[in-house]
Amino acid sequence: MSNPLYDQLFGKHGGQTTPFLVLEDGAVVTHADFLDVAARFAHVLTRAEMSPGDRLAAQVEKSSWALALYAACVQSGIVFLPLNTAYTVDELTYFIEDSGARTLVCDASRKGALAAIGDLPGVRLETLNPDGSGSLADQAESMPTDYPTIGREESDLAALLYTSGTTGRSKGAMLTQGNLLSNTLILAESWRFDARDVLLHVLPIFHTHGLFVATNVTLVAGGSMIFLPRFDLDQVIARLPDATTLMGVPTLYTRLLDAPGFTADLTRDMRLFISGSAPLLAETHARFEKRTGHRILERYGMTETNMNTSNPYDGERRAGTVGFPLPGVELRITDPATGEDVAAGNVGQIEVRGPNVFKGYWQMPEKTAAELRPNGFFITGDIGRVEEDGYVHIVGRNKDVIISGGYNIYPKEIELVLDEQPGVLESAVIGVPHADFGETVLGLIVPDPDVDPDLETIAGAAAASLARFKHPRKLLVVDELPRNTMGKVQKNLLREKYKSLFVPA
Question: What angle do CA 31, 33, 34 make, to 5 degrees?
């Protein structure tokens, strides 16, 4: 019995002595060396009586060792549960108890704080540090470098990823071997990855973007990665001449554009820049192309589905859109109230179906049934529309829709107007409680450091471009917008902060 994910990602290039990872200090880890470490880790997990299908939770700093732990889980059939390094003890306790994880691997510096989790029945606590020390690595030193890969079916779970839980209890998205592998193969082909590619990897690896897109695509292509522990502007600029591709979030690209040292000459050997996890402003597209000659490729995905759409590698990479559905992925726009398809060009909720779509939410059959239709379409919670020529637009999140006086208002439409105004670096539009209208529109503006925004002029521009019911009731200037680790604006925090602006508590 084969292990499709391991065979395609790791086994195909496992014996190669070509570089796989180039680390921050310049050290090189070959494909073969990497798999030797993974095999040793797999032996440790097996000897700890972990079995295929058991869950391993990892809250560790990004390193080659952390990545090898992922490979070890795939090879031994263990379900990998990567956790944000910013999660608190209370949050971790919920994830461990909910998932039934049998092992938690953490940084040694957190072992004391997490001791109570290690005392939970059936939970084993191990440590793994970025320098390769820790109890897990200590045990692995004496283990063999070959491991009999455990057979798995494509329908077997490979990973459990918890959603952010901004509207309630975090949900564990069950991702199968087939989900991850199908998406990886399609992306590698669509984005033309091959063994000559060197990906400048600056993303966290506890998230779909950094782990299941960036890393998996590089692995299946047999390429290599400059593996930096975090996004550091100076390091990125220093390493760009050695890379061919870069995957990032919008804030990465805006910071590069603000750096005087970021020039066209620096990117002369780059093949592809990819952006995702949050919307990229059209202005950023334009500035980046003017500065470098490269057109950023924007795509759309989420925890439950991996990637759904992408702007084309060959053809127009249209700013403000996320391109077309990937091969094998079906996308439709429906009425949230009825579930019926809306007319072409109209706004509605985005639903997707394909081999990339997850199996359901861990131990939440009711939530799974509510969001995953019997016909296989997943209700993403995103609001969008499709142009006549097929380009997909993301208008916003369903929970972000503002209902004011009975009208549905989509924040993205207003943000696009605000972002075009002089003095506006970026904006966020939210709905806040209002005694007369139920909700009303609040616009939050981050000012351009070089130009002072004139709020009256901006309000006038919005009034000229938008129907009256869409006009912001008020515009406020803020220093910055709260974002999660992947750069998404956390509108739930903004709604909480300004909920009493028009209706006193």
Answer: 65
Asked whether 23 and 225 are in contact (CB, 8 A), the reply is: no
Cβ atoms of residues 201 and 67 within 8 Å = no
Q: Side chain identity at 369, as an amino acid letter?
A: A
Q: In this structure, which amino acid lies at residue 17?
A: T
Residues 6+ positions from 406 with CB-CB distance below 8 Å:
none
Residues in Cβ contact with 148 at an 8 Å cutoff, skipping those fewer than 6 apart: none
CB 225 within 8 A of CB 195: no
| d(C-alpha 203, C-alpha 231), whole Å | 7
**39 CB-near residues (< 8 Å, 6+ apart):** 72, 75, 143, 144, 145, 146, 147
Which stretches of 77-223 are DSSP H helices? 89-99, 115-118, 135-140, 177-190, 208, 216-221
How many residues are given for the chain?
505
Q: Which amino acid is at 229?
A: P
Beta-bridged to residue 382, according to DSSP, are 397
What is the mean pLDDT, run by run of 10 residues, along the chain of 505 residues? Answer: 92 83 95 96 95 97 97 98 87 91 94 86 93 96 96 97 67 96 97 97 93 96 96 95 94 90 93 88 89 96 95 94 97 93 92 97 94 95 92 86 77 88 93 80 93 92 85 94 82 90 77
The residue to which tokens 């890379």 are assigned: 243
Structure tokens at 471: 């006009």
Q: What is the pLDDT of residue 88?
A: 82
Residues 6+ apart with CB under 8 A from 398: 336, 349, 381, 382, 383
Residue in this structure with the two tokens 């004011």, named with its chain if needed = 404
Q: Is residue 208 classed as helix, strand or coil in its secondary structure? A: helix
Other Cβ atoms less than 10 A from the Cβ of 212: the count is 26
Distances (CA, A) of 118 to 79, 111, 135, 340: 19, 9, 14, 48
Residues 6+ apart with CB under 8 A from 10: 35, 38, 71, 74, 75, 219
Q: Quick one: CA torsion of 51, 52, 58, 63, rounded to 10 degrees?
A: 110
- DSSP characters over 228-282: -SS--HHHHHHHGGG-SEEEE-HHHHHHHHT-TT--TGGGTT--EEEE-SSPPPH
CA dist., res. 208 & res. 379, Å (int): 19
3-state secondary structure 455-490: HHHHHHHHHHHCCHHHCCCEEEECCCCCECCCCCEC
**Element holding 415 (H helix, E strand):** helix 411-419
334 in Cβ contact with 342 (< 8 Å): yes
Whole-Å CA distances, 440 to 61, 339, 399, 435, 455: 42, 27, 15, 9, 18
Q: Taking CA 322 as the corner, what is the angle to CA 205 and CA 240, rounded to the nearest 5 degrees?
A: 50
